[in-house]
Amino acid sequence: MGKKSTRAVPRERIDYTQLLAELQAGSAAADSLVTAPVSTEDHQALSRFRQRLMSDEHILYFYSGSGGEVHDKTCPRTREILDQNLRWSKTYPNHLPQCSLCWMKAYLRLGARDLFRNSDYESLFAEMGMTSKLLRRMYVHKGMQTEIIGSDRLKIRCREDTWLLEAVPGTRYLRLFHNNYQANADGSRTFTSGYHEQAVCACAKYAVKVIAGYTYAGHQAALAQRQEISAVYFYEP
What we know:
The longest helix is centred in the first third of the chain and has 19 residues, at 17-35. The radius of gyration is 34 Å and the shape is elongated. The chain is an alpha+beta fold. It contains eight helices and eight strands; from the N terminus they run H-H-H-E-E-E-H-H-H-E-E-E-E-E-H-H. Helices cover 39% and strands 22% of the residues. The strands form two sheets. The protein has a five-stranded antiparallel β-sheet. Strands 2-1-3 form a three-stranded antiparallel β-sheet. It has two domains: 42-101; 112-237, no CATH class.
């Protein structure tokens, strides 16, 4: 039986040049992901210099030596500042504008005795209409100290006096209370327990104005003047 003859079929030649180029490009991209250096941001967050500053409880604020805004030390935007430009402060650098991202934390760090209640402050300030400008005046310029009492009262200490500020339910008004005291014959006073209502305020700005402007000497002078006017008014020759 004769052998069946076979005829060779020419194979089509396939060009793998493009595929090889794509594979090589993909391999190079993968290598770049593995061997790329740590980004500037990550480097700044992990540098020993920055870690040392963050762990120092006396350091409260960061800012750039080339200008810009003041940040609370925990603000994410501080990562944008290179280590060689980073400046720190134990007190608030009030010559600089405040970062819009961390303004509440930065101000609270100055005067809030219960900084851990940061979220409660956010809710209470929103309810009372406290703006960033007003908080800057309270904490930065007037040195007020605060503490939340319960969930709806703000205790404010300014110089010698202590105040309570609370929202009037169902209204936009705020009720302001002032610490009780006993006036002494020598012109001094002795603080006693409790508070008395000082004013019903149409807005937080007015309440802060009353607190910031109050002094006992000024109050006594105003009281004496009112008594003098009253005596003249009711005088009968």
